[in-house]
Amino acid sequence: MEKLIIIGCGAAGMTAALYAARANLNPLVIAGPLPGGLLTQTSDVENYPGFPEAVNGYELMFKFQQQAEKFGARIENEKVEQVRLQPGGPQKLTLEGGRELECQALIIATGASPRWLGLESEKKFLGKGVSACATCDGAFYRNVPVTVVGGGDSAMEEACFLTHFASEVHLVHRRDAFRASQIMVDRAKSNPKIVFHLNSNVIDIFGDKDVDGVTIRNSVSGEETKIGCKGYFAALGHLPSTALFKGILEMDEAGYLKLQGQSSRTSMDGVFAAGDCADPAYRQAIHAAGMGCAAAIDAERWLNK
Question: Which helix (H) or strand (E) holds 292?
């Protein structure tokens, strides 16, 4: 039986692995289908402390893994298919190939994934003008126009944030009314840099090597319009990767794991969580890393009891 298993290998999972390994817990990391997490899909990361020059997202996560392995963390590129959890353990995991694992303590760091419209061009230009994080990538679009898709609070927040960099922000929403709170809508409408395109859908993103613009279609008139821009930001919310734990661990309405107070403890004794799967507010690598640190410390203290 393993002392500690960590599911997920993004910033939260790898930081948890680092701290747990240095505490001689010999952690096993089940890396999942996307080793390194979402950050590996980011070309340049400028806002992670310690890297005054931009660092490639894949390179950054590779360094995370190297550091964790240096202290004894073990990484397996497997996928967890099923979990059987009970208060106090042991926790049982079934991998995709049928192999079963048991552990005393479990850290869940499965992350979250952004919602997309589902356009092929979103995939084509991902990291080349297409992003789902204005906080991460907004500074790359100084003095050029960008497009934001969405109608909730996150869309308004991202549009307003991007006005600090972009020359113009085109906000595209499929309806004529917003899901966002009125105060956020008023704030966006009062910003002269934000141009609204209501009752409209993005039907394509075009460009050569990078994004050069989007094509939108008005759902009322059927008219199609091309908007020149260098950045496309999907602000449609995120989906926490917590389906495995539905009905087992407490979650909020959106599916994010609920934590106890300021700790990493979930609703089940001996099961901890860190990163975007339990963080609907920030979704930043540095915050996920901090949560991973807390989860490893909480797990170590729990095991020592």
Answer: helix 285-304
